[in-house]
Design brief:
Strand content: 15-25%
Number of helices: 7
Largest sheet: 7 strands, parallel
Order of helices and strands: EHEHEEHEHEEHEHEHE
Strand order of the largest sheet: 1-10-9-6-2-3-5
Bound molecules: fructose -6-phosphate
Shape: globular
Distance between the termini: 13 Å
Length: about 240
């Protein structure tokens, strides 16, 4: 596991601080870093720390470019459930990032296939992703790459599983309002990032974390592909590390 640097933090706040410090160091070293970002509950504390570092320690986002992992489709950027909206609220509107350097798949693109192909081109044009932040689903999904997604997949459109629509319905006015599709970076897109920062918090992630790091490398557990990457930071809290 030489390629994987595992850090067990005391709790969620400690995990969030340690993760933010890695991003801080990266951006201090390379002012024009290209960051891959995730939504979901896990990185919210890390974003809070980054905002504090921007305010108190002059962390400068003006040269940084970001690519988010995924977005619902179709969805408007003004919808408070869009990942675009999430990123504005949790990070972008609080720091000095250039809006032209923010990339999130367009939930309103007229042609979803073209949007996916363009997203890959934009990542290439930016020089590739230096540091990709990942959360992890209970089934090992990374981005919206559910079990069964091929490891060679690039940015692509997916149909949300009925179970995902059902569980996300609580965030929307009704189940009918949950978008049926999404755009996600593929597993290969993620693996092409130069460094990966995987975060996990809470006991409910303990089992999948064990399978991710020590289980069979299989498309049944998409996150297990990370064992094949040569530079991964895994920052987890004690609860998530229970089985390691
Ligand atoms: C988010 C994403 C997802 C989440 C995962 C974990 O952009 O791509 O893969 O990282 O579902 O979500 P939380 O952090 O809410 O447990």
């Amino acid at each position: 596991m030489n390629n994987i640097k595992l850090v067990v933090a005391k709790d969620y706040n400690d995990m969030s601080e340690k993760a933010a410090k890695i991003i801080f160091d990266h951006v201090k070293n390379k002012a024009d870093s290209v960051l891959g970002l995730a939504t979901g509950s896990t990185p919210v504390g890390m974003y809070r720390n980054l905002i504090e570092m921007h305010t108190n320690s002059k962390l400068d986002f003006s040269g940084v470019t970001t690519f988010n992992l995924d977005e619902y489709y179709p969805i408007s950027r003004t919808n408070d459930q869009s990942y675009y909206y999430f990123m504005q609220e949790n990070l972008f509107k609080h720091v000095n990032i250039n809006p032209h350097n923010i990339y999130i798949p367009h939930g309103e693109a007229s042609d979803i296939e073209t949007e996916c192909a363009n997203y890959e081109k934009q990542i290439d044009k930016a020089g590739g992703i230096d540091l990709q932040v990942l959360g992890i689903g209970l089934n090992g999904h990374i981005g919206f790459n559910e079990p069964g997604t091929p490891f060679h997949s690039l940015t692509h459109a997916i149909e949300l599983h009925e179970s995902t629509i059902h569980s996300n319905a609580r965030f929307f006015e009704s189940k009918a309002d949950v978008p049926k599709r999404a755009i996600t970076m593929g597993i290969k897109t993620v693996m092409l990032s130069r460094t990966i920062l995987l975060l996990a918090s809470g006991e409910k992630k303990a089992d999948i974390l064990f399978r991710t790091l020590f289980g069979e490398i299989t498309t049944d557990v998409p996150s297990s592909v990370l064992q094949l990457h040569n530079s991964v930071f895994v920052i987890v809290d004690r609860e998530a590390a229970k089985r390691l």
